[in-house]
Amino acid sequence: MRRRALPALDWFRLAAAILVVTIHTSPLSSLSAGADFWLTRVAARIAVPFFLMVSGYFLALHHWQHLRNFLGRTLLLYGAAILLYLPMNLYSGSFSSVGWLRAVFWEGTLYHLWYFPALFWGTLLSWLLLRLGNRCALAGAIFLYLIGLGGDSYYGLAARLPALKQGYDLLFSLTEHTRNGIFYVPLFLLLGAQGIRLRTGTALTGFCLSLVGMSAEAFFLHSLDAQRHDSMYLLLPVCMVFLLALLLNGNRCRSHAARDLSLLVYLIHPGCIVAVRVLARLTHSWDILVESSLPYFAAVLVLSLSAACLLYRIRPLPVNPKARAWREVDLGALCHNANVLEQAAGPGCALMAVVKADAYGHGARVVARALFKTGIRTFAVACLEEGIALRRAGIRGCILILGWTSPEQAPLLARWRLTQAVADTAHGAALSRTGYNVHVHLAVDTGMHRLGIACEDVEALAALYRLPGIQVDGIFSHLCVSDSLEGRDVSYTDRQVSAFRTVVERLKAQGISPGKIHLLASYGMLNRPEKGFDYARAGIILYGVYSDDSPVCFRPDLQPVLTLRARVAAVRELASGESAGYGLAFTAVRPTRIAVVTIGYADGLPRDLAYHGGQVLIHGSFCPMVGRLCMDQLMVDVTEAKTVQPGDTVTLIGRDGNAVIRAERVAEQCGTITNELLSRLGHRLPVVALHQSGRS
Ligand SMILES: *Cc1c(COP(=O)(O)O)cnc(C)c1O
To answer: How far away, in angstroms, is 537 Cα from ligand 1 center?
Structure first.
């Protein structure tokens, strides 16, 4: 018969947690005092040493590398438990301020919470003892345990010697128990760390015999009335060595559920004890529910287990955003760019951060919040939904919607205090008729012939300023060939600029105050640094990239903000002549290693990238794409990059080591501009914000 894989250690954790509940509910007390003494004061005393030994076992298994994490986690749990039981502490009003300090640092703030400070200090002490070598550490821990024993079950005997009694009385003026981080914890932790293995028969016999021996020891001490407490026995460590060896033999796998449930039961059962008692009072069933010990134990146990199961099911399980494919956004670089561009715009001209299309694929929430923090108060988006999303992200100030919004949506524009660009005279009139007093900027068409009121029609513009029902806060136009330095285009831009200036002058001449005036977008700022406007609408260059590599008049010191990464899902070997992918579009001409990468065209990558020399970076080296890009995956040739393994990080845009793939280059390969490439990066890619600049 095949042996099933048992998570013996984790299952026993759950059993040990139930034993702790036993200690605090005395299930047999109304049946037999002797039986209850044996169960709760002897047998159940293996529970806490077991937890300590498992901790020692796993710490040693990983060569104590996880010590910091372990201590941090212990403190975190302890902190959470203190908060959890704070209402009970306050209700019982049990501590003075000095008492609180002592409780928090040493004794635990509720009866079962002594375990966490003990574990913390005991683990630190064990680690220090181990500096002396394993044997010395063990000897030291045994010595400490013996001292602790004298203050626990053996106190009555130890106290017969006056010198010892004095010593212990001094000790007890400092600490209530000796089952703490100094005397009790190190021995069990270090015994666990030994990972002693025994044959199952030996371990079982040893455990049974030492348990019988420990029971005899306990009843003997009890009969002498020697016990001050009953946490420590001479035979307890012996018993525990056999128990751990027994469980290690049966331990074939892990059970995270059992491990977490045991911790939860341990943490919450005192709360459940209170709940059962309150319930018993309210339902007048004190006699059955509390006075009879077995139903009392059962009620507390069932409640603790149910509450633990519920908490286990709803515990937070965060998804790692870097598990498949993601966008890394360097907020340091973003703020640097905003700064540089604001300087470039000159005095009196503020930056209007264009964060449409999810901030050009960088994640509008993260980007807008970072810019808002640096002091930017004017944002531009393309549509109503984007504007509302920014408001929901806590962005205040002006949010201008550059695209057309149906006048039916005027209530939303008003509610979210969004500013709407007026697309033409009819749009403005329709907005005014809604009666929602929408804030607007007038778009002026100076030659692009997209949106806007014709620049020749000054009367129409002036009429819009006078319309009731809309509030005109500004006027703007858009340049359509400012990215070109060719003579014909430059003179077209000249005519656009002067047409816009003329419109503004003529409005002013009619006594109209035009509000905020803005014209330049990214390429206007780079190629036509005009003065005299209130805003510069920076889009693509805010993200540290150019639309393409064509020449510009002025190259500010910008840093790319976005890095696009994915992971290697699998590595495949192809023999010479074998083909791969849809349409078998790739055929190996030599033995080839192929890595499958976890990103595809549904994430926004252009599907023809693989045909046009697309590459990725793995371990800082270029690897060419092969075959057809799939919806969710792509393949690269890693024959040269021999160490590539599943799980490795793949860079599609950005830096990896000394190598860089520029967004401009990828866009050019696919015959487009970075604006399109980046703005298509899909919502399936989580945004990971980096807070320090990537620049070294
Ligand atoms: C998108 C857009 C911008 C920003 O353009 P960039 O070239 O990315 O700076 C500015 N103004 C208007 C009207 C836009 O539509």
So the answer is: 6
